[in-house]
Amino acid sequence: MFFHLLLTTDCDLQCRYCYAKAIDDMDADFGDFEVDYSVPDRITYDLEVLEKFMEKDPEPVLIFYGGEPMLCNDKIKQIMDSVKAKQFNIQTNGLHLNKLEPEYLNRLSTIFVSVDGTEKLTDYYRGEGVYRKAVENIKTILKNGFKGEIVARMTLMEQTDIYENVRWLLNNPDYSFSSIHWQLDAGFWKNDFQKRPFAEWVENNYNPQLRRLVDFWVDTMEKEGTVLRLYPLLGVTQSLLLGEDSLLRCGSGWANYSIQTDGHIIPCPAMNGMKDYYLGHIRDAHPLQLKRVYVGQPCTSCELFRECGGRCLYANITKRWSKEVYSLVCKTVKNLVESLRLSLPRVKRLIDEEKTGLSDFDHLKYNSCEIIP
Fold first, then answer.
1. Beta strands at 179-184 and 229-230: parallel, antiparallel or unpaired
2. Chain segment 8-52, per-residue pLDDT in tens
């Protein structure tokens, strides 16, 4: 199993798509869901309890998560010293990467760094100087011997041109990322849609620029024999090639769970404090026998369900955006899948000609990439 380990709810940034919207959404009605607003801001359970819980799974993968998990570097070190895991990963804003000693840093397999594109765009979303600090810290950990995967974790709003910014992240003078993932800021807050030009951006920018990006991705395969690790394209194309169906692609609720700071287990880190979806506590639950939670309607009757898997469990359950509004998000998924399906003959030809191979699309599933943005 994969587990997001929520180390803290604290963060030292005030990003436009997170902190700012949380303030605007503070008084929003959460419907009939019972929400525990007293979840502690740091881990309160004994780490021996976590150790005994993880011992029941022969190959657990732990993903350090927050808030900003690297505000708790001492706790990260204690956990890595005491808990046996197949793999440790982390999602971070990158501002404290230089503070974790190499003996611990180099035991991480994958580091997701929140970088949204160019320096100007990242700093617009996340705060002045954030991009430069994160990139300099990436250079530091590479000097200190880190050899794992570094993934640029983009969050997209209306100021983002996906084609231009992914291209820039792949090839820029500061640090060229070889792995990139992105997620739309859509359906997470109740009060934000009416304040945004989301519909116009999807129609006039994101969807057409995503199609350009798919063409560029396949062009690169043809010209260089390289399958760029753009996770949304990588994951969906692999499924199309193999003809496989997919459950919720991030794994939340069935392959990937989250552990709150108080030890309660939830299906997804976005569901922190949602008491209706507490699935047990690490002191007495078994990691391989947790209740499964799946998306429901309208996802399950959608014609793209087998390719999409449902996109987002939190959005599906809470329905923070109305069905009519959320259909715009579904159109982005349809655009993604159809664009990749249209490119499939080119990809299959490259495989037949041995310019690339099926193994080039392999990736660790449920590692914290949602795949469907």
1. parallel
2. 999 999 999 986 666 666 566 677 889 998 999 999 999 999 999
Q: How far apart are CA 330 and CA 328, in angstroms?
A: 5
Distance CA(70)–CA(73), nearest Å, equals 5
pTM of the model: 0.96
Residue 150, φ and ψ in degrees, nearest 5: -115, 120
β partners of residue 6? 65
CB 371 within 8 A of CB 236: yes
Q: Is 23 helix (H, G, I), strand (E, B) or coil?
A: helix
Mapped to the 3 state alphabet, what secondary structure does 278-339 carry?
CCCECCCCCCCCCCCCCCCCCHHHCCCHHHHCCCCHHHHHHCCCCHHHHHHHHHHHHHHHHH
Among 27-36, 131-140, 177-186, 222-231, the minimum mean pLDDT is found in 27-36
Pairing of strands 149-156, 179-184: parallel
Alpha helices in 83-189 (DSSP H): 102-105, 119-126, 130-143, 162-170
One-letter amino acid at 124 equals: Y
244 CB neighbour count, 10 Å cutoff? 10
Q: How far apart are CA 146 and CA 140, in angstroms?
A: 9
Q: Is the pLDDT of residue 335 over 90?
A: yes
For residue 259, the cross-strand partners are 5, 265
Question: Is residue 308 within 8 Å of residue 333, measured between CB atoms?
Answer: yes
Instruction: Provide the edge-to-edge strand list for the sheet that holds 179-184.
Output: 229-230, 179-184, 149-156, 108-113, 87-92, 61-65, 2-6, 256-259, 265-266
Distance (Å, whole) CA 310 – CA 302: 9
Q: What percent of the chain has pLDDT over 70?
A: 97
In tens, the pLDDT along 147-156 reads 999 999 999 9
Q: CA geometry: angle at 156 spanning 153 and 158, to 5°?
A: 160
Q: Which residues contact 46 (CB under 8 A, 6 or more apart)?
A: none
Distance CA 271, CA 259 (A): 10
Segments of the chain assigned E as strands? 2-6, 61-65, 87-92, 108-113, 149-156, 179-184, 229-230, 256-259, 265-266
